[in-house]
Write a structure and sequence with these properties.
The complex is a heterodimer of chains A (about 475) and B (about 130). With about 475 residues, chain A is of the alpha/beta class. Helix content of chain A is about 30%, strand content about 25%. With about 130 residues, chain B is an alpha+beta fold.
């Protein structure tokens, strides 16, 4: 059996599951989880979307053979729901102990008896079982082609990412399969430990937008030791960029014989100089195109440093649909049109975690600006909206957003951050030298991040992304 | 065209069953649409015209904005149009009046192309 499944939980669902399974009575309890399925460049991911706790004895009770078992009506209700919504059916129960867990012989026997029939009902979707102990979990996933898979590891997305393995041996194997050249990061290892540094080495991170903020994010990630970067930006360098695109040189600008260097190529050069062994994928294209957006689906984290609404919409959708957490970074300087006086200068860091309120809920994706971005220059001129006026941009303000965004990622990803909830949105006001912390609102009917209705939350490959062709 | 855009065009055909809905792919999955004829009523001359707009690839998250009608339309009273109705534009090569009415608090669940076109027509007929 291949150990190739990654399972991702939003923290709220994981808490509800563990509260149900471990109420403190020491008994065995059960539930069913419906999970989205994502086939990515880094393997198969299950995205825990819905939870049905099994009530006792109606849904879960002692069967004819003397063992606890889920009851047929409950199973049928859940597996047909999964079939109809293209979700993966996972029957969950708990064992005692902590730090390691495995399916018992009785468990495996019941899978053999029942899962072929469940696969027939599931109509092309995998089905399986999940068993939890304190701090450990294991999967037995049955694929329609008859193969089976076990758990590589599970991630719980909270203020810090928790990772759960079946046992310490699996953990050891996964964590050290790409051990970092720690001498290069010796001073960091003193803080992160070898395990933390290896986590970065195994990580794959996308940076959308390689301008003022994105170029800084790129350098920070490379120097942190992130193993793989996906860099996306369609633009070439302009003279006005030199003051704030890290690594840009005057010979990157257009000459009589050459075009200006692509921003992604400048970023790749900077990253390679910082860490020669890292894998870098450069995409000089629009993130809103489906063929481009799909190339980040194997990533562990997304940095959005592009200032377009088109990119925000796609980023927001991917975070919620594919459970890839991300952060939107930006700076803005506003000046009075009459006097030219600067009225506002701030940097923002907005973390977007699946199911926790999103950019759409918080009206940060402007529908009229979205419409405007799809116009050609000629259309914009005819409609007298004029050419977009560039926002003032200064490297030091960009650095505030970039450093905080990457630093937050460092602490969350390595598990070194506090477990207490932090305000996901921060606004650094440079005129008043203050920081405003905000909790985003969560629209219970949001099409992106709510569990209600027809939202895209956790659906993985079962839904299209809001991209262009 | 993307399925969301095709559905939007279908909604226009249902909402304007007597009209022709011309559709031109924009190359990115969206479409430029023109619905004709639509009736504005005696307040306008001519009283019958066309209405059009760009349904982008990111519809229904993206507004359909602005909306256009025939560039030869005038108020029968002789009064001039005022913003958000402006003259001297073109839409897909046709002389056009531009109606810059954005949808505030757009809900992607409720947003429909038919609703947008009908709301703008209603506003034009009853508010100008």
């Amino acid at each position: 059996m291949n150990r190739d499944i990654r399972l991702v939980f939003p923290q709220s669902l994981y808490r509800r599951l563990t509260e149900h399974l471990f109420p403190g009575d020491g008994n065995e309890h059960a539930a069913i989880v419906a999970a989205g399925l994502a086939e990515t460049s880094t393997g198969l991911r299950l995205l825990a979307r819905e939870l049905w706790p099994a009530s006792e004895p109606a849904d879960y009770r002692v069967g004819n053979r003397g063992y606890m078992g889920l009851q047929a009506p409950f199973i049928h209700r859940c597996v047909t729901h999964c079939r109809d919504h293209r979700l993966v059916y996972l029957a969950v129960h708990n064992h005692g102990g902590s730090g390691h867990v495995a399916f018992s012989d009785i468990d495996m026997s019941s899978h053999q008896k029942g899962y072929r029939a469940l696969l027939d009902i599931a109509n092309g979707m995998p089905v399986g079982a999940l068993v939890l102990a304190q701090g450990a979990m294991e999967i037995d996933l049955w694929h329609p082609d008859g193969s089976r898979s076990a758990l590589r590891y599970a991630t719980v997305l909270g203020p810090r990412f928790e990772r759960h393995y079946a046992n310490p041996r699996v953990r050891e194997h996964v964590e050290h399969e790409s051990a970092a050249a720690n001498q290069d990061f010796a001073r960091q290892v003193l803080f992160l430990g070898s395990a933390g540094q290896n986590l970065f080495k195994r990580s794959k991170v996308a940076v959308v937008g390689l301008g003022g903020i994105g170029s800084l994010v790129n350098e920070y990630l490379a120097r942190l030791g992130v193993g793989s970067l996906v860099l996306i930006d369609p633009d070439r360098l302009e003279a006005s960029n030199i003051s704030r695109v890290v690594g840009a040189r005057s010979d990157d600008l257009v000459s009589e014989t050459t075009e200006s260097t692509l921003k992604v190529d400048i970023a790749a050069r900077v990253a390679q100089e910082a860490q020669a062994s890292m894998e870098i994928e450069t995409i000089a294209d629009d993130f809103a195109r489906e063929s481009v957006a799909r190339r980040v689906l194997g990533c562990d984290f997304l940095f959005l440093a592009a200032d377009s609404m088109k990119s925000r919409l796609v980023f927001n959708a991917i975070v919620n649909q594919y459970y890839i957490p991300g952060v939107q970074l930006g700076t803005k300087v506003l000046a009075d049109s009459q006097t030219g006086n600067v009225s506002s200068a701030f940097s923002v860091v907005r973390h977007v975690t699946p199911g926790e309120g999103c950019l759409l809920c918080n009206q940060l994706i402007d529908p009229a600006k979205l419409a405007d971005e799809w116009k050609s220059d000629a259309e914009r001129a005819d409609q007298q909206y004029g050419m977009p006026i560039p926002n003032p941009s200064v490297i030091t303000m960009n650095a505030v957003a970039a450093a905080h965004g990457v630093n937050d990622f460092l602490f969350a990803y390595t598990g070194l951050g506090a477990t207490t909830e932090r305000a996901p949105y921060r606004r650094f006001d440079h005129l008043t030298n203050t920081v405003v912390h905000e909790h985003p609102r969560r629209d219970p009917r949001c099409t992106e991040c709510s569990i209600e209705g027809d939202s895209r939350l956790g659906y993985g490959d079962a839904r299209p992304l809001p991209c262009s062709q | 065209m993307l399925p969301t855009v095709t559905d939007a065009v279908t909604s226009l055909r249902k909402a304007f069953p007597e009209a022709v809905v011309e559709v031109n792919d924009d190359g990115s999955g969206g479409a430029y649409v023109v619905v004709h004829p639509v009736t504005l009523g005696g307040k306008f001359a001519p009283s019958i015209t066309w209405i059009g707009g760009h349904i982008t690839a990111q519809f229904p998250y993206s507004d359909i904005y602005p909306i256009f009608i025939g560039g030869d339309v005038r108020l029968a009273s002789g009064a001039a149009f005022v913003p958000p109705v402006t003259s001297g534009h073109t839409f897909r090569g046709r002389p056009a009046l531009q109606i810059s009415r954005r949808t505030n608090r757009l809900d992607p669940v409720l947003q429909s192309a038919a609703c947008k076109f009908q709301k703008v027509l209603y506003w034009l007929i009853h508010q100008t």
